[in-house]
Specification:
- Pathway: Cofactor biosynthesis; ubiquinone biosynthesis.
- One of its GO terms (molecular function) is 2-polyprenyl-6-hydroxyphenol methylase activity.
- It is an enzyme of class 2 (transferase).
- There is one protein chain.
- This protein is of the alpha/beta class.
- The protein has a single domain (about 5-150, about 185-230), classed as 3-Layer(aba) Sandwich (Rossmann fold), CATH 3.40.50.
- It has helices at about 5-15, 30-45, 60-70, 80-95, 105-110, 130-140, 155-170, 185-195, and strands at about 50-55, 70-75, 95-100, 115-120, 140-150, 200-210, 215-220, 225-230.
- Strands 3-2-1-4-5-8-6-7 form an 8-stranded mixed sheet.
- Strand 2 (about 70-75), helix 4 (about 80-95) and strand 3 form a beta-alpha-beta unit.
- It is globular and about 45 Å long.
- The two termini are about 30 Å apart.
Length: about 230
Amino acid sequence: MQTNADDSELAKFSALAHRWWDPQSEFRPLHEINPLRLDWIDAASPISGKAVIDIGCGGGILAESMAQRGAKVTGIDLSDKALAVARLHALDSGVSVDYQKIAAETIAAERPGQFEVVSCMEMLEHVPDPASTVRACADLAAPGASVYFSTINRNAKAYLMAIIGAEYLLRMLPRGTHEYQRFIKPAELTRFARDAGLDVVELIGMHYNPLDKRYSLGAGTDVNYLMRCVKHA
């Protein structure tokens, strides 16, 4: 099976892996949005005691926070450095997360239907074939399970805010973090989900206010957005 990964993308994030848990680093936005996305997931699919898998877990910010709420978490990624950081931080935090270096498509073939919650956050815009990742997420989900995605819309506003604004003007992210042509419109992600046997049940925007420097969830999916799906029972 050919791995659905971009070596340049893996190298980009591996080079920054040692800074993953520094809340003032390039990963500051992930630290700041994590409580929002964690609460959103936990409210819709209470995760305590559930088998959860986080696809593209990186250094483990979301995976670890879900484990702290009682979930039985598996975190997968293809970056050795990011996974090493994730494992060390979990030891320091005293939480249990099963971190594995494995592709989503591979573990989906090995463990189909074994997870009650599947999350794939801020990853789809970094892989060559996002539809393949969506199918893998669907295959991993048990019937009736919830599958969560977050990514970036593809339009002029998203280009101005997610690349020009965030990377060049506000310098919230390193230049080159995102490539505009890899952004995904909600209609496209909806099609990927439905083709994979998922029902889309919620679509919500993630917004940043540069005045008070705070994030919030709400109506409007012009730039960053999150999608909740349910696997066909």
